Amino acid sequence: MIPKTCRDRVVAPSLLAADFSRVGEEVSRAIRAGADWLHLDVMDGHFVDNISFGPAMVQAVHETNDIFLDVHLMISRPDHYLDRFIAAGSDLVTVHVEAEHDVAATLRRIRAAGCQAGLAINPATSLETVKPHLDAIDLLLCMTVVPGFGGQAFMDEVLPKIRAAAALRDETGGEWHIEVDGGIDAATAASCAAAGANVLVAGSSTFRAPDMAAAVTSIRNA
Ligand code: DX5
Ligand code: ZN
User: Fold this and answer.
1) How far apart are CA 203 and CA 59, in angstroms?
2) Contact between residue 71 and residue 85 where contact means Cβ atoms under 8 Å apart
3) Which of 10, 67, 103, 199 could form a disulfide with 179 if both were Cys (CB 3.0 to 4.6 A apart)?
4) Which residues are catalytic?
5) What is the pLDDT at residue 65?
6) Domain ranges of the chain
7) Is the beta carbon of 150 within 6 A of some atom in ligand 1?
8) Cα angle at 119 between 114 and 124, to 5 degrees?
9) Confidence class of residue 29 from pLDDT cuts 50, 70 and 90?
10) How far apart are CA 110 and CA 117, in angstroms?
């Protein structure tokens, strides 16, 4: 697998929108549909008001597939659980800047373990908060909904922040991906890509589309 750069368009279906009664088949379906990465939303019922799945799910997908695993930790203490998610086979681990941890130390530990490191910010969080960490990240995730649940409406008001992140990356010569997550379909993917995002996470609009391959292609070409 050739690693993706921030100049590549990456479509990452979110497993949260899959049919949990047949997860293995759902992952295969995403791969056949042309998914570049698989996005795994980990929720602890504390950082967000929903509980999804933990490292056992990451490990099950890792052991049965080769797809790049983009693991998004929406949990209060990412530092406490980090080693388990890395051991489970994550390729990239994203933690929130708003969570309770030493962000710089957590990012260092992710990279030291040989994983790529992502940093996520909620819609209400300023880009200023990530500036001290730009040398330590492989991906900046700009949430385009308030995290917690799939199927929410895309928040247009995040677009200026995506543009500012892309400008900041240009100014600093950074190579980090800009990922968007929440309410992404072909139309909102087009706005995000125009603003500078290259990794497009999409749950409902891919797993719940009548034709998943067509949905993935339309997001990639948006
Ligand atoms: C939001 C999650 C998203 C979610 C996206 O809390 O982080 O990844 O699964 O789902 P859709 O694409 O349905 O908005
Ligand atoms: Zn996510």
Assistant:
1) 20
2) yes
3) 199
4) 41, 181
5) 96
6) 10-220
7) yes
8) 170
9) very high
10) 6
